[in-house]
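Hi V.,

You were right to ask for the full record rather than a summary. Here it is.
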Amino acid sequence: MEMDIEALKIAAELMIFGMGGVFLVLFLLFLISKLLLKIFPAK
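Predicted structure:
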């Protein structure tokens, strides 16, 4: 069974972009929630 190195590179690149996207969205949600808490503080 032969491994295609080029395909492996492409797969790793896609995985990195995917994971980066997930963490970016989580970080944005975190920042937005912090901002909303500053604008509308809990009573």
